[in-house]
Design a protein that fits this description.
Length: 154
């Protein structure tokens, strides 16, 4: 065999061995997928922005938010607690009222309309499917007197 032939043969054999090793290594590693549980998930985080000023001036409160290590999904009850990656919903409370609502839409914006002019605050909380609260943030704002707010009429 010539030197060129030996070199080509060694290259082909080496490439075949490396390919076989790479395939074996890839299949030995667990795949990262939203369909598989995540061990030791990092803590969830809620990031809330102030209301969008242009909409606030028109009487509509649009509060952008996003989550990290937490998915907003319409799942509820104790049976949904084992979902991984972690999931749940938002609790939304306006002006410290004794009631709130659950938002499971994941449109990354909470919308409230019809608030009267003046100061207000909205509490957003990350909640597990059984409604246990993990964390929350309060946004304070003022609905201007010149806004389109009509005290509940749309």
């Amino acid at each position: 065999m010539t030197t060129l032939t030996k070199t080509l043969a060694a290259t082909v054999i080496g490439a075949a061995l490396l390919t076989a090793a790479a395939v074996q290594t890839a299949s030995a590693q667990p795949a990262a997928s939203v369909f598989l549980p995540i061990a030791n998930e990092p803590p969830p985080k809620l990031i809330v922005e102030p209301p969008i000023p242009a909409r606030l001036a028109a009487g509509s409160v649009l509060i952008p938010y996003r989550t990290e290590n937490f998915r907003i999904l319409p799942i509820f009850g104790a049976g949904a607690l084992d979902v991984s990656p972690r999931a749940g919903h938002l609790h939304v409370t306006v002006d410290n009222l004794p009631w709130h609502w659950a938002d499971a839409s994941d449109d990354q914006t909470v919308v409230v309309v019809g608030l009267p002019p003046g100061p207000h605050k909205i509490l957003l909380e990350l909640a597990l499917p059984d409604h246990r609260v993990l964390s929350g943030q309060t946004v304070s704002f003022i609905v201007p007197a010149t806004s389109g707010a009509t005290g509940g009429h749309h």
